[in-house]
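#help-structures
NK: newbie question, is this the right format to request a structure? protein is RimJ/RimL family protein N-acetyltransferase
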Amino acid sequence: MTELKTDRLLLRQWQDSDYEPFAAMNADPAVMEHFPAPMTREASDGLIDRIKPSIEERGFGLWALEVLDTGRFIGFTGLSVPSFEAHFMPAVEIGWRLSKDAWGNGYASEAARASLADGFGPAGLEEIVSFTATSNKPSQRVMERIGMTHDEAGDFDHPKLEPGHRLERHVLYRITRAQWEARR
């Protein structure tokens, strides 16, 4: 199993010890502000259970994120294949979710850069997308920091949300292998 390392972080396969802090993070209203609702413990555990095989099958996925110096679990970052229909599909998405106490340290950008390198390197991808609710300015700033470009014509209403939902409208960001290589 491949692990990704940065100067400060380890992106790794999920461990049994991650379930509890992940559930606490997913139950935090601040962390889940740009999602429809905080997650129950059962839903949070189920998410890990779906992520783990994806990493094993594809060689990439939403990696558990750990601070190297302390071994502390702080969330996830990585690549996934969205499970809904949209005009930009099929696609591979880069995403992240960090515990509130890990915010403001540059961890999301650092881990996302490692994920892009893995996606355009060993995974052999030609393009990676990211999307979020229009209100999620912090994630949009991460997308811009890692070299992604807002595709305004690609913005969309998320099909898994009810029409009129406060989070329905999403922005779409993209980066191609060529764009990523030019920034290296």
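mod (FA): yep, format's fine, and the tokens are attached above. Helices lie at 19-26, 41-58, 107-120, 137-145, 177-183.
NK: thank you!
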